[in-house]
Amino acid sequence: MIHLEHVTKAFASGKGIFDVSFSVEPGMVFGFIGPNGAGKSTALRQLMGLIAADSGQATIGGFDCWVETKEVKRLVGYLPGEISLPGDFTGDHVLQLMQQLHGGDRKRQADLLERFPFDPKTKVRKMSKGTKQKLALVGCFMKDAPVYLLDEPTSGLDPLMQERFLTWLEEERRLGKAILMSSHHFPEMEKSCDRAALIKDGRIIVESDIHELIRSSRKQYTVEFGLAAQAEQFAIQVGATQKQQRVSFLTSDQLTLNQVLRLLTAYDIRSIQTATDDLEHVFLHYYGEGDES
Prior knowledge:
Blueprint: E1 2-10, E2 16-24, E3 28-33, H1 40-47, E4 55-60, E5 63-64, H2 69-75, E6 76-79, H3 91-102, H4 106-115, H5 129-141, E7 147-151, H6 159-174, E8 178-182, H7 186-192, E9 195-200, E10 203-209, H8 210-215, E11 220-225, H9 228-238, E12 241-243, E13 246-250, H10 257-264, E14 269-274, H11 279-287
Parallel strand pairs: 3-8, 3-9, 6-7, 7-8
Antiparallel strand pairs: 1-2, 1-4, 4-5, 9-10, 11-13, 11-14, 12-13
Helix pairs in contact: 4-5
């Protein structure tokens, strides 16, 4: 349903996206992960027909996103990363305008307002960031579209609203919607996405099933030794950090768990702990803790 094929869009600053390809099929939530400036929003704007690619092609539902942008926009519900709404409009006025521009089901709108409640009589300029986000979510999803492009959809939402959003997203996925979502919120990506792509400096560095992506990451372990001298010796062997009788290290292609276990048989071991696998560890694995975010 959503296809990017070798899309490149370069800006004068050197930023942009380069040779980006991926697909999102109906009934799939696809996560797009990367630090600020990595190219996530640029890719979504390509799909919305807001900017033209230098090369490659972006299509939704078989329509070219730049050449046939009107047809594409009929198929898509779009939530931009930066919510910009008329400050003197009330929530009701914004939703009425969206209804006129994009259509929308009244019953669906009422359901969304019940899930993401706010005072629709309040003017936008008086709304908090979270309230503006709820307004934008209702405006996006009240259009019962087959495709949704969501740029940081839970930004500003409290934990309860985040959970309600994930529940809504799962219901939409089960209805066969194709959903592309960029986010920095790793727990929500783990819970909601079927596949994910990590983008760095405008290039996709890995794309995989979300659970395979997590399983393939480096794992962190902490071993407690009976003696500090043993901990020091083991730390030297694996090139790890030592703190008294504890050594923490990451497994990798060069240091597998089997190799570590063979080394540990020579020592008095008190305990072995492993960090929970999560998407944040995957992110740090590919980007490095020293990279800017």
